[in-house]
Amino acid sequence: MDDVIVRIAEPIDFAGRISFNSALEVMEIDLGNVEFANREMVRQFYDEVDRQMERMGGRWYFLINYENCIVAPEVWDDFALRGKLANVNYSNGTARFGATDETRKTIRKRAEAERFRSNLYESRDEALAMLATMRRRHQFQGMPSRVDPGRAADILLKIENVSLRFGGVNALQAVSFEIERGEIVAIIGPNGAGKTSMLNVINGFYHPQEGAITFKGERRHQMRPYIAASHGIGRTFQNVALFKGMSTLDNIMSGRALKMHKGLLWQFLHWGPAQKEELKHREAVEQIIDFLEIEHIRKVPVGRLPYGLQKRVELGRALAMEPELLLLDEPMAGMNLEEKEDMSRYILDVNRQFGTTIALIEHDMGVVMDLSNFVVVLDHGIKISEGPPGEVQTDPVVIRAYLGMGQ
Ligand SMILES: Nc1ncnc2c1ncn2[C@@H]1O[C@H](COP(=O)(O)OP(=O)(O)OP(=O)(O)O)[C@@H](O)[C@H]1O
Ligand SMILES: [Mg+2]
What we know:
single chain; 6-stranded mixed sheet
């Protein structure tokens, strides 16, 4: 009798494909050339991940190689569910690289629906760099309040005695405060307190009659819009200020304008290199689109989008210039609770993942409490209080201002 040769696929040694780098806090998983053909394989793989994570303990950054990895459509749900659990249980953040177009698309779509970051990269180096950034940013999370003694301050922006008048209106009167690198500072106060005016002074739209603005160590009597923007101050507005007829993608791309060094004539004369530069910017923009989970509206003219999404696109455009200091004027105004929660999460993520320092104007005290680690309170153009959110909230002077009794 002839031998019947039954080919059984070699069991995959998942254990050998998982490695840990404790210095980088990275768990690396190599799924190169793996084909997840059935649920059993998915189970084996994630059981192994769970086993190793239990053994190592703690939370790790995940780095996953997807080169030539195929996940059969019918097992995607299982794969994604177990992946989500692993992330929730043990991950500080995940970066993926090498995925085929098909896999990328699926991951992006799922990320959108499940609200996680797809963090897809071409190469391992890029993915590693992203994790390194994430790790650095996470250190801000535990940042003590700035009033803690003995903490070395790294002042990014210093406002000194700024006064701004419009005719007889004192929009700002001798206002001083500081913003440290890595912070989220909330500027609060009743209507007409001077909050928007303060942001306008910081990014050079308004020129104060008195005072000084020191940004990154450079002291100026007034800021100029171009200098603010080119030195890394980004901005969103109280009323959405987008090109309504242009798509999400083009609006965000327009935020890159400052980063594009080559002028139009140059582009005309040097088609090749200009194209290369354009591609680079496109990539950066794609990452922002990924980050803000707005893939599905990339082609939609923003005028047609609901308000909450327009606000997100506006944030995207501000991010496109890679600001060091991001000024947000009521980023959650007019949003429902769910949209507010979303926006809060993006703001926190921008701060943590990119290390962007943020100054935001917000009326909702709950949001202020959740997001900021320092609060500046204005009323009638005067700074009436400042400090950690918990303290400011109970400050009688602040309560009085909000109750309208301080007038
Ligand atoms: N361009 C301007 N011309 C004249 N007055 C102005 C101008 N900009 C602001 N003001 C005045 O300065 C004061 C502060 O206004 P600002 O818009 O800064 O307040 P705000 O705290 O942002 O208020 P809101 O919560 O309503 O947005 C107000 O009295 C306002 O009318
Ligand atoms: Mg305002």
